[in-house]
Design brief:
There is one protein chain. This protein is of the alpha+beta class. The chain is built from 10 helices and 19 strands. Strands 1, 2, 8, 9, 10, 11, 17 and 18 form an 8-stranded mixed β-sheet that branches.
Length: 381
C-alpha cells in the first residue's frame, strides 16, 4: 500500500531506480520505490558492469556481492574475423576492479534489491504513474488505480519511454539511427575464450561475443531485419559469417533472445523543479561499448547523494549541480557509442582502410590505454 507522503518517490525498480533508493536509504532518507511491472525482470539484457561503475557501487555496499557472481574479463578485443585489430587490457588499470564484470542484469537487480531490503526499503508493485503536478512543496503523483502520493522529489528511473519525463514536459532530443540489432544468450561449443569480450568486424557486419557466468554467451549483432525471437540456425549463421573463420563455433541452444533498435537521445534537462532524471529516462544510445546501464548506475548514486544532501540541509543548488555534471557526461557517452557504431558498420569498400588504421593505432600504448580508460568508465572519475 502506498504511503500518503514520502520524501523521495523513485519511479522504476530497475538497476537505476534501485541504486538511487539504496543510496538514499543508506543516508537515512525516506524513500518510496514503485514500478508498474508485477515482478522484476528475469532476463539478462545489460550484461557488463565496468570498473568505474563498480567503484561507485562499492560506496553503497553493492560491488562485492556483485563481483562474486560474475565473470572477471580482463581483456576486450576488436577483431576482424580471426585477426585481432585492437587488444585492450583492463588488468593494468589503477582500480580495485581491473576487469569488465560479465553478469546478467537480473543478477545486478537482485543484488541491489537485496541491499535495499537489508537496509529496510522495499519496492511496491504494480503501480503505474498516470499524472504529475508540481508546486512549491514538491509533486503530487497519481496512479492508474486512483491512488495518489505527495513527494518532495520524484526520480524518473522509468526508462527510455519515461512517463515521468513526459508528464514533467522534458524534451528528449536526438534521433533514431534506424539500425536494428538482434540479441541472444546462447549455449555454444567454441574455442573462443570465456573470460574475454570480443567485438567482431566482418564484411557482413558487427557481432559482439560476451561470456556470461552461467556458461552461456551473449551475442549481439547489427542486422537489417532482426527477428523477434532468434533461432539456433539464425544465430549459427551470424557466427559463421561474422565470427572467427578458422575454428567454427557451434550453437547448441538459445537461452533467451530479443531485438531492439538503436536510439541516440539525451533529455533536454535532468532537473525540472522537484523532478529529476536518471538512467535511460535521461539518455539512450547504441549498445557499443556496453555503457548504457553503467552510465545509469553512476547517475543513480550521484543523484541519491545529491538528494540526500539537500534533504539534510544542503542548498537546493546541489540538484542543479547534479544535472550540470551528469548531462554532459551523458552527451559524451552517447557520442562515443555512436562513433563506435559507425566505425563498426562502415561500408564494405572502406573496411580495409578502417582495419589498417585500427591496427596502426593499436601499436601505440597510449591509444590502447586511452581506450581502456574510456570503456572502463574511469575517464569519468
Amino acid at each position: 500500500m502506498l504511503p500518503e507522503r514520502t520524501d523521495v518517490l523513485v519511479v522504476g525498480a530497475g538497476p537505476v531506480g534501485l541504486a538511487t533508493a539504496v543510496t538514499l536509504v543508506q543516508r537515512g532518507i525516506e524513500v518510496t520505490v514503485v514500478d508498474q511491472a508485477p515482478e522484476g525482470a528475469n532476463t539478462s539484457r545489460a550484461a557488463v558492469v565496468h570498473a568505474r561503475t563498480l567503484e561507485v557501487l562499492d560506496t553503497i555496499g553493492a560491488a562485492e556481492p556483485l563481483t562474486e557472481r560474475g565473470i572477471h574479463a580482463p581483456r576486450f578485443t576488436i577483431r576482424d574475423r580471426d585477426r585481432t585489430l585492437v587488444p585492450v587490457r583492463f588488468d593494468t588499470l589503477p582500480t580495485r576492479f581491473p576487469y569488465a564484470l560479465m553478469v546478467p542484469q537480473s543478477v545486478t537487480e537482485a543484488v541491489l534489491l537485496d541491499r535495499l531490503t537489508t537496509l529496510g526499503g522495499r519496492v511496491l508493485r504494480p503501480y503505474q504513474v498516470v499524472g504529475l503536478t508540481t508546486d512549491g512543496a514538491g509533486s503530487l503523483v497519481s496512479f492508474a488505480g486512483g491512488e495518489t502520493i505527495r513527494a518532495r522529489y520524484v526520480v524518473a528511473a522509468d526508462g527510455m519511454h519515461s512517463t515521468v519525463r513526459q508528464l514533467a514536459g522534458i524534451g528528449f532530443s536526438g534521433e533514431d539511427s534506424g539500425e536494428s540489432f538482434t540479441l541472444a544468450d546462447i549455449r555454444v561449443d567454441s574455442p573462443l575464450p570465456r573470460d574475454e569480450v570480443a567485438l567482431f568486424f566482418s564484411g557482413a557486419g558487427v557481432l559482439v561475443w560476451a561470456p556470461l557466468p552461467d556458461g552461456s554467451v551473449r551475442i549481439v549483432a547489427a542486422v537489417d531485419h532482426a527477428p523477434e525471437q532468434p533461432t539456433v540456425d539464425y544465430v549459427q549463421a551470424l557466427l559463421d559469417e561474422r565470427g572467427p573463420a578458422a575454428a567454427r563455433s557451434t550453437v547448441t541452444g538459445i537461452v533467451w533472445g530479443s531485438r531492439f533498435r538503436v536510439h541516440h537521445r539525451v533529455a533536454d534537462r535532468f532537473h525540472a523543479g522537484p523532478v529529476l532524471l536518471a538512467g535511460d529516462a535521461g539518455h539512450v544510445h547504441s549498445p557499443a561499448g556496453g555503457q548504457g546501464m553503467n552510465l545509469g548506475l553512476q547517475d543513480a548514486v550521484a543523484l541519491g547523494e545529491a538528494l540526500a544532501g539537500v534533504l539534510t540541509g544542503q542548498p537546493e543548488s546541489v540538484l542543479g549541480d547534479y544535472a550540470a555534471a551528469r548531462r554532459p557526461v551523458a552527451r559524451e557517452v552517447v557520442q562515443f557509442a555512436g562513433r563506435l557504431t559507425r566505425l563498426a558498420t562502415v561500408p564494405a569498400a572502406l573496411r580495409p582502410l578502417r582495419n589498417a588504421a585500427l591496427r596502426l593505432l593499436a601499436t601505440a600504448p597510449a591509444f590502447r590505454r586511452r581506450l581502456a580508460w574510456r570503456l572502463s568508465g574511469l575517464v569519468h572519475r
